[in-house]
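# step 3/5: fold
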Amino acid sequence: MKYRTKKTLFIILTLFSLTSFGQNPVIIPKEFIETIPPKVGSDEWYPLNHSQNKFEVKIIDEKLEVEKVNKTNKCELNISNGKLIGINNGEWGGKLTFIPIDTNKQNIEIKSGNIKFIFTFKEKIYFIEGLAHMGYSGGAIFELDTIENKFSYNKLVDFDDAPEAFTIYQDKFLIATHEKFYVVKDFKKELVFQDAFWRSLYPNSIAVLDEENVFLGIRGGIVKLNLKDKTLKFYKYDNK
């Protein structure tokens, strides 16, 4: 009886431990050192702003993967009768274009603007536009309608800060802007972080394990966000 009691107690404690602390704790690559997030414009922030190291984050097999990246200025989405191509040339503009499969048909320019992302969600097509230049920073989410090669779009969500990185998690859009972070559900936005230290560190990717482990790739390092308690940690790249 004592043996069974001890064995049962051990199993209970093990299950409690796994439930409390998680079975797969996130491992941060050793080249990234937890550092106090610098203030924008500080001596600690400027080297990050000028860093040539830009990091992309991914979750693969429930593990965090980080790699250096050189983001292109183009995004694409294949649809039934052709391809949508978005171009983002920053201050020099951009556009959203449809290229039909039938080469006898002409390309269609749908909209001018800096197109950051094109994606499908619940069988509909959306695109995100954004620009941060000089004193301006802003963007929006649009729904795109395609009927017989005739295109129209409708603005659903406005941002007063330029969207930079985006992902879909469950039924929510997670969007890191130039210096903020939003959660968008049912096309209603919630501001989670504002005046963030990653201003002008150009977020490029978001990877999600769960709401307590959301990662952001930026210049000079990566950021870990906890959307439940609205806290963040900065991990600076250090290859020494």
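# step 4/5: annotate
The chain is about 10% helix and 55% strand.
# step 5/5: archive (pending)
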